[in-house]
Amino acid sequence: MTIKRLGLIGLTLISLVLSGLSLFSSWQEPQFQSRLELYQTNIALQAQAWQPEDNKDEFQGIQSAILGDKPLENATKQYQEARKSAQTNLVTAKNKLEKLRSQSVTTPIPPKPLPETDSAKNISSPQEQQLQQSLNQLQKLLVELDLRLGILHAQQGKTDIALKTWNDLQQRSDINPEFRETSAVLIGLWSDPPRLLPNAQELIQKNLDGWFRSTALVQLYQLQQRQEALSAVKATQQQAATQAVLKLAVIGIIPTLAALTGIILLIFVFAQLLVKGKAAFLAQNADVPWTTPWGGETVLQVFVLGFFLMGQLFVPLIFSLIPVPLASGNVRIQAFSVLIRYLLVASGALWVLYSSIKRFFPLPEFWFRFNFQGKWFLWGLGGYCAALPIVVLVSLINQQLWQGQGGSNPLLQLALESQDTVALGIFFLTAAIAAPLFEEVLFRGFLLPSLTRYLPVWGAILVSSLLFAAAHLSLSEILPLTSLGIVLGVVYTRSRNLLAPILLHSLWNSGTLLSLFILGSGN
């Protein structure tokens, strides 16, 4: 065995350990989907106040189609699930912090007493600081959820449950005093008889938002008999409701139509496959492998050196040496950091790929084929429509398996909470252009055809899809991304044109970013 091969084996083991640790660390991380559903719930609450002047019967049908029959009950259920998930994450964070502190080394007591300063009291490891920050965020989130849950219960006539929720907040000493004051304001508004605090309006406007703020202000102004202020807040509420309906229509109706098209398409192609067999549209190139001039060692070299170690070791090391706070609160810096990281990983991986296979040039037919003629556009668009119902179904099953845990792509969270146009443009460049180009060249253009040397085409599709999903380093995303990868693989093996899966991938990521932008703009 050569030194090169021994080194490759060692690096493979290192990359497996690093990737395994990254996947394992996502085990107890909250899923992004739960936050996404909460954002959509907030927009749905705003939309349920929509009342156009004309076409009332038609309005009721549209409203029911978009929001369902019981929007308040559905929102309450969603918030209760979010609270349960946040409480679980809080307990986990507390246990981790206590375990970390118990393992830390105790410093010796100095011979003379030293003056106790704030900096001395707060000395802790970066990991402890990060856990403490997560703990504070979760505690704040729980308080915000309780404030909102109380308003939801009150609007459904369950005033006793609402008052109990807010009274429980009053008893807590570990929260921001403003939140206790806000809960006191809400208790006063919904008590019988009501009690009006002098700073009620200020606290409501500061600590509540969206539908919850307008609902509390309506209650306040009605009790104060301030008709002008009441009319103004109702007008604002109606304007927000109209915008919310439009947003829900965009993020709900368009994907639904695409998914229905996908279902029809899936039924058609599978029915044709049953009737026509190998002459069917879906059977095109289904059993035709690529002629692969290299072996598994070359594949390992590309993925271990060019992808995993570049992304897990080399690029993070480079960024750790840059004296710029890339993890700061500036969303533009964060977006630019994500783009640069991705471009560095992609450039390194593609350079290793080129260096590894250049001795086999010229390559056999259909390798890395970009052909702007033919039906690649129909394959990409049809694949996107077909992927929607498949991935949605798998995601629903996946949610039940993971129960809100398993981690998520941090880019999605940044894109959801950012309303900065420049940052969103950078996110779009990363997710809708750079990612489809790089990932399709690597996973569909190189890995999948290489595997057909050892596996049948369907086996190569499945294995490449699993590796594609695992490369995103999030346990909760493995099943949905594997199903997406299978559709991408089918599209590529049938079309033999990389433009088709690149288009599908770009449409998928673009649709996700558009939905995140719309949901974020309503919160």
Automatic annotation (TrEMBL):
<protein>
    <submittedName>
        <fullName>CPBP family intramembrane metalloprotease</fullName>
    </submittedName>
</protein>
<feature type="transmembrane region" description="Helical">
    <location>
        <begin position="334"/>
        <end position="355"/>
    </location>
</feature>
<dbReference type="GO" id="GO:0080120">
    <property type="term" value="P:CAAX-box protein maturation"/>
</dbReference>
<feature type="region of interest" description="Disordered">
    <location>
        <begin position="101"/>
        <end position="130"/>
    </location>
</feature>
<dbReference type="GO" id="GO:0008237">
    <property type="term" value="F:metallopeptidase activity"/>
</dbReference>
<keyword id="KW-1133">Transmembrane helix</keyword>
<feature type="transmembrane region" description="Helical">
    <location>
        <begin position="455"/>
        <end position="475"/>
    </location>
</feature>
<keyword id="KW-0472">Membrane</keyword>
<keyword id="KW-0645">Protease</keyword>
<keyword id="KW-0812">Transmembrane</keyword>
<feature type="transmembrane region" description="Helical">
    <location>
        <begin position="302"/>
        <end position="322"/>
    </location>
</feature>
<feature type="domain" description="CAAX prenyl protease 2/Lysostaphin resistance protein A-like">
    <location>
        <begin position="426"/>
        <end position="510"/>
    </location>
</feature>
<keyword id="KW-0482">Metalloprotease</keyword>
<feature type="transmembrane region" description="Helical">
    <location>
        <begin position="248"/>
        <end position="275"/>
    </location>
</feature>
<feature type="transmembrane region" description="Helical">
    <location>
        <begin position="376"/>
        <end position="402"/>
    </location>
</feature>
<keyword id="KW-0378">Hydrolase</keyword>
<dbReference type="GO" id="GO:0004175">
    <property type="term" value="F:endopeptidase activity"/>
</dbReference>
<dbReference type="InterPro" id="IPR003675">
    <property type="entry name" value="Rce1/LyrA-like_dom"/>
</dbReference>
<dbReference type="Pfam" id="PF02517">
    <property type="entry name" value="Rce1-like"/>
</dbReference>
<feature type="transmembrane region" description="Helical">
    <location>
        <begin position="422"/>
        <end position="443"/>
    </location>
</feature>
<feature type="transmembrane region" description="Helical">
    <location>
        <begin position="498"/>
        <end position="519"/>
    </location>
</feature>
